[in-house]
Design goal:
The complex is a heterodimer of chains A (320) and B (604). Chain A is mostly helical. Chain A contains 15 helices and no strands. The C terminus of chain B is likely disordered. Chain B is α/β, with parallel strands linked by helices and 604 residues long. Helices cover 32% and strands 23% of the residues of chain B. In chain B, the strands form four sheets. Chain B has an eight-stranded mixed sheet, sandwiched between helices. Classes of the chains: A mainly alpha (320), B alpha/beta (604). At the A-B interface, helix 1, helix 9, helix 10 and helix 15 of A face helix 2 and helix 4 of B.
Chain lengths: 320, 604
């Protein structure tokens, strides 16, 4: 078990190392001179060279990378070219909005997608299944930004026209200040992100449940005289926790790395919108920081999923 | 009063292709403490009967009556049926691994059944679970309580299933192919355990099986099903020793146990019918050896015989007696002149190394020093239980995986040092036929191109010539050459195995390695394929390595037999000698477990 964890952690470190090298060299070969960008059009060559030297951009690439790597492992992601703020601080400022969006959306899509999937799978071909499948089809085909805009129009703009406020247009309000205000502001972003993802979970749940309910041990459970509810939940659903966990690990990591579209539509100052702004400004330290953060989340999520397998599946437990 | 009585049961299951008529006018009754056998090949409707009794066919159209302890199960609501299931009617089924939930301990799965029907505490349920585990022969039951299914062997898992089934002392136990997935020595133990349980607890047992021989030792009454019809029912001694219906007689005649080794088997011709159409006459008429004109026109009447058995047949007398086990003759085949052996294996080892520096998994040795020779034109049978390494041996000899150490010579050529080009040409000499005729044919390719592959790969024939040679091969193995453009899914199991054999024959090999070629086939089809294998050898002078878990099949086709256990050959010799005077205790236990028919002699 310990050796399993050690090998997973070593591999995770390697993945992050390769990722950091990749983004770093990607920006090195990309066009555009950051020093010129920072100093502006009117700066003299001498000024530009001065800035370039300050940033260390005149040194050989491998030296730049090594010093970047050295600072990164110490938790220093450098400073924004734009406003000279530490990248770690910028990211830390943006995390609450992204985490708030993530937690609510995950709970919502699980609460919606899994029951729909189970309901669909229990009576394949029935009207309930057809409704579930309809939900899946609409959900996976709806682009997030269209759904977000539609919700804004229906639940913010139209009530405002009629003279009252049903939901705010967006913006992030801190949880600690007032949880109710927080939830009220987060509701439309949650629904936007959750509805499309819930369809994916409904489809996954339906497919996996259909397969599991045909298993011999389900027939054994029925032959024992268990109630249908127990057969479906305790014996059927228990078996699909493993694939659900796999999918959930990847999705949570992706949301934490920035739900770009949802954050943009609702003006949430999260990681995703930070990334979009940084790309617009060609602010390399921030872009690299956000990419590494997203990579970190994915790697950590994978390790957690692997550990959960061990908890979920006694057969895996035996193998380690 | 009978514990279970089915009257005029009709079951039709709606599917995408139409209504499947899985049972037609089936009646039988089972007394308390009786072991009632239902025998039939796949698709005969026997498992559907079991599920209908348990009320596990929600979509099926069922008519007739199923009386259990004074109540008609078909009139009960789902809540009432649920209360009966597990407590009064229990079930065990074929594959004990897939029937136990992999994520729960066996103890909790059995306790769950007890807690569902009895209002007792968890501790009491655990105590009862441990008691019943001990009763079915699980050693250290208190400790095994918290183990998971994958930590048990196949036979132990089936004991766990039986423990779950008898935990609540049900009046009726339905065992659907309880031993099919188990090794032959374990099979005997499980049948014995079921027999003990019904005697001790007075439980009526309905045992469903494709293996008539299995019923020969324990069943009180036997019902033979075919295409959803009850062909014959009666006391075990009557049905198995003096079958009334030609189908029962045919089944018994197809079994290699009832034939002298090397003689052609008597298969039932043709294929089982589709259950989508209900024939006007007898369902068996197209395959029946004693068919009369009326058989395919009108449904046959039910006849009762003096020994108490009933059959549905137009024939007034019983079917001609099945071939009695023929006295085994030695030297049925001319001794082959001692030529150079086609295969020589010396001290062969094969294993997997340990899992690397991070893993605690030790290396596994699967073959521990195998030596054997196969003379040209002869058949060497390799028999052993699952996990003994027999399939691995086949793969190593075929060169699909390299040996760890030891020497393999094929046609005088040591295969260890061959380069890719030499392997390519050796492939023409050695061919394989696999167990699963479904999995070993690409479902998206036409049969003509599957059989023609060897010609294409080795650049032997192309165009019209290849086409013609494929058609010839199809004719050789008994397939209709007009089916050249069909897909594997359009063929039955037996026909698919013929396709596999045709593919193996394409390049005129000297050696064919058969890995369990008939174990996925029904007994009547198995006989057809075994006859074909035998006939091809005589016609083409092929040498065979024939691997199977089934001693009767191996003995039927082999000149010599090697008995494998745990990666070693424990006994090897002339087939008849192994059969008549086995030396090794393991061979003796294999023989004792696999040969139920001699026990029948007392009954007849």
């Amino acid at each position: 078990m310990i050796s399993f964890l050690a090998s997973r952690l070593a591999f995770a470190g390697l993945v992050l190392l390769v990722l950091s090298a990749f983004v770093f060299f990607l920006f090195f070969v990309a066009p555009g001179d950051p020093a010129r960008l920072l100093t502006g059009e009117k700066a003299t060559e001498a000024q530009v060279a001065q800035v370039r030297a300050n940033l260390g951009l005149d040194r050989p690439i491998h030296e730049q990378y090594l010093s970047f790597l050295g600072r990164t492992v110490q938790g220093d992601l450098g400073f924004s070219y734009r406003n000279q703020q530490p990248v770690t601080k910028l990211i830390a400022n943006r995390m609450p909005a992204t985490i708030s969006l993530g937690i609510g959306a995950v709970l919502m899509w699980l609460a919606l997608g899994i029951p729909i999937g189970i309901m669909s799978a229990r009576h394949p071909g029935s009207w309930r299944d057809r409704m579930g499948q309809g939900f899946i089809l609409v959900g996976v085909s709806f682009p997030t930004f269209v759904l977000g805009m539609a919700l804004l129009y229906l639940l913010y703009f139209m009530p405002r026209q009629a003279g009252f406020t049903l939901f705010p247009a967006g913006g992030y309000k801190p949880f600690l200040a007032d949880p109710l205000i927080w939830a009220w502001h987060m509701f439309l972003p949650w629904v936007t992100l959750a509805l499309t993802t819930a369809a994916i979970y409904a489809r996954l749940t339906r497919g996996e449940m259909l397969a599991v309910m045909g298993e011999d041990y389900i027939r054994t459970a029925r032959a024992k005289g268990l109630s249908e509810r127990k057969v479906v939940l305790k014996h059927g659903f228990r078996s699909i926790l493993t694939p659900l966990t796999t999918q959930l690990g990847a999705d949570i990591a992706a949301v934490l790395g920035g739900a770009i579209v949802t954050e943009q539509v609702f003006g949430l100052q999260g990681i995703g919108s930070l990334a979009v702004q940084a790309v617009g400004n060609q602010d390399r330290p921030i872009i690299i920081g956000v990419v590494l953060l997203a990579g970190f989340f994915i790697v950590v999520a994978n390790i957690i999923v692997d550990l959960l397998y061990v908890l979920l599946d006694p057969r895996v437990r035996g193998a380690h | 009063m009978a514990t279970l009585e089915a009257r005029n049961l009709n079951i039709a299951i709606p599917t995408g292709d139409g209504l499947v008529h899985a049972a037609q006018n089936v009646s039988f009754s089972v007394e308390a403490g009786e072991l009632f056998g239902i025998a039939g090949e796949s698709g005969s409707g026997k498992s559907v009967l079991a599920q209908a009794i348990l009320g596990l066919l929600p979509t099926a159209e069922i008519s007739g009556e199923i009386w259990f302890e004074g109540r008609d199960l078909l009139t009960l609501g789902s809540r009432d049926l649920q209360k009966l299931r597990g407590a009064h009617i229990a079930m065990i089924s074929q594959d004990p691994l897939s029937c136990l939930h992999p994520y729960y301990t066996i103890g909790s799965q059995i306790s769950e059944a007890i807690l569902t029907h009895k209002h007792i505490g968890k501790t009491a349920a655990k105590r009862e679970t441990i008691e019943v585990l001990a009763k079915v022969g699980i050693t250290e039951p208190a400790e095994r309580f918290s183990h998971y299914p994958h930590q048990f062997s196949g036979g132990m898992r089936q004991r766990v299933m039986i423990a779950m089934a008898v935990a609540l002392n049900p009046a009726l136990l339905i065992a659907d192919e309880p031993t099919t997935a188990l090794d032959v020595t374990v099979q005997a133990q499980i049948v014995e355990l079921l027999d003990t349980m019904r005697r001790e607890l007075g439980t009526a047992v309905v045992m469903i099986t494709h293996d008539l021989g299995l019923l020969a030792s324990v069943a009180d009454h036997v019902m033979v099903m075919y295409a959803g019809n009850r062909m014959e029912i009666g006391r075990r001694s009557a049905v198995l020793a003096a079958p009334a219906h030609p189908y029962t007689a045919g089944l018994l005649a197809s079994s290699p146990s009832n034939h002298a080794p090397g003689t052609p088997l008597t298969p039932i011709a043709g294929q089982p019918p589709s259950l989508l159409v209900r024939p006007g006459g007898c369902a068996f008429a197209p395959r029946c050896a004693q068919v009369m004109p009326i058989c395919s026109l009108e449904r046959p009447p039910e006849r009762a015989f003096a020994d108490g058995s009933h059959s549905i047949c137009w024939r007034e007398s019983k079917a001609p007696a099945p071939m009695a086990p023929v006295a085994r003759q030695t030297g049925t085949r001319a001794p082959v002149e001692a030529g150079a052996p086609i295969v020589t294996v010396r001290d062969l080892h094969f294993g997997y190394p340990s899992g690397g520096p991070f893993s605690k998994r030790p290396g596994v040795e699967i073959l521990k020093g195998i030596s054997l020779t196969l003379a040209r034109g002869r058949t060497l049978g390799i028999v052993g239980e699952s996990g003994c390494g027999k399939s691995t041996l086949a793969r190593v000899i075929a060169g699909l995986v390299p040996a760890s150490s030891g020497a393999i010579e094929i046609a005088g050529q040591n295969i260890a040092g061959l380069d890719a080009a030499q392997w390519h040409s050796l492939r023409k000499t050695v061919q394989l036929v696999f167990q699963d005729p479904f999995g070993s044919l690409n479902p998206r390719r036409r049969v003509g191109s599957i059989i023609g592959d060897p010609f294409r790969i080795h650049g032997v024939a192309s165009g019209a010539e290849r086409h013609q040679r494929v058609r010839d091969l199809m004719a050789t193995v008994g397939l209709n050459p007009e089916h050249y453009n069909r897909f594997p899914s359009e063929f039955s199991g037996g026909q698919r195995q013929r396709i596999g054999i045709a593919r193996a024959l394409a390049l005129n090999p000297s050696l064919i390695i058969y890995d369990e070629p008939v174990s996925a086939l029904d007994v009547s089809i198995q006989a057809q394929v075994l006859n074909l294998i035998r006939a091809l050898q005589e016609k083409l002078g092929l040498s065979y390595l024939f691997i199977s878990h089934d001693l009767a099949v191996v003995r039927h086709v082999s000149d010599e037999i090697a008995v494998m256990k745990e990666g070693r050959i424990v006994e090897m010799g002339d087939a008849d000698q192994i059969y008549t005077s086995p030396q090794h205790p393991y061979t003796k236990s294999l023989l004792a477990a696999s040969n139920p028919l001699p026990r029948l002699k007392g009954a007849s």
